[in-house]
Please model this.
Amino acid sequence: MIDFNLSEDQRAFQKVARDFAQKEIAPVAMQFDKEPSFPGEIIKKAHAAGLMNLTCPPEYGGQGIGLVSAAVVTEELNAACVSISGMIGINTLACGPILVGGTEEQKRRFLLPLNQAGKTAAFCLTESGAGSDAGSVRTVAKMEGNHYVLNGQKCFISNATYAALYSVFATIDRSKGTKGITAFVLPREMSGLSTGKIEDKMGQRAFNTAEVILEDVIVPIENRLGEEGEGFKFAMKALDEGRVNIAACSVGLARAAFQASLDYAKTRVQFGKPVGTFQAINFMLADMAAAVDSARLLTWHAGSLADREVRYTREAAQAKFFASDVAMRVTTDAVQIFGGYGYMKEYPIERYMRDAKLMQIYEGTNQINRMVAGGALIRE
Ligand code: CAA
Model:
């Protein structure tokens, strides 16, 4: 039998996350969108409330609650604000390579102090010439004695400006393609590591995006994850979880847009009736509700496979492209239902639509995620 009910623990976590989101995040979401800044105080409170590092095992300073439970929490936070919640949840992806490829000693050395202090990290894969084609990174790691020297430039890196730790992917030999890519962990204070231009984005404006610049950074061999050439697989495995996380973020955003639309459609009267009772709007609401529910089920299904330690690459990709497409459609329909009010910056609806667009782009464009899912279908 399939049980769609949340456990008592999951319901308790959901309530903590919902209360936190409504009290600490929702009231300031519009302000952070207008004037983006680091939500340090909110991150500190989220950390104290146990809402960070959700799937990271407790021995490394995380909550260790599993991916389905994490999706429940993530949905709640993102229903309030995708940008601020993105900064709270960034370690899911950024610390993923350490959990996937690190030794016991490395996990304790890197993750424990970071997570105990409530600090955040960054996942540095993308470069100007290596976006969808992540295997073509040009950042070079050259071995010299007992250390590597890293040179290169990463772009569009989430949380780059504020991270205390960077998971960095570099090649030891470009001719080897993905098999030359190697993963390293770089603490912020390493000489030669700096951050560059902060991007001015259409949406998710307080979710920091910037360049990471590496100039002759000396990285001890002890900071390499796994063997040379294993980095690409670590990145892909971290992205499997990251994509379920983005799906949960998308569900939260879509749910918020749907709920606002429903409330409005019940109270906005035109031609003597609430607009939600006109079939044109009523059918839109029905489609929005079905889409949000479907996206949530795909997300939980992918999470449940991860929790059972079954390979879930295809399901993660499916959940990501489906849920983020749902977020785009539902937020666009929300603007339509609100009409002129939906388009004005005075209300949150237009922000929802701007925020949704990025979800179809990051952690693999939805075209790439369809490629991942489609490829797996043929191979399975
Ligand atoms: N788990 C384990 N292994 C995996 C894997 C996975 N999920 N995906 C691929 N691999 C393995 C393959 O099996 C293959 O191994 P073998 O050679 O031993 O068979 C190896 O990795 C190479 O795989 P591919 O041949 O499939 O590699 P590719 O060059 O064709 O690329 C791709 C595949 C799916 C297109 C990949 O490049 C990709 O995911 N691109 C998108 C990049 C991306 O998502 N970037 C996001 C940046 S981070 C971000 O956006 C975060 C943020 O800001 C919030």
Observations:
- The chain has a mean pLDDT of 97.
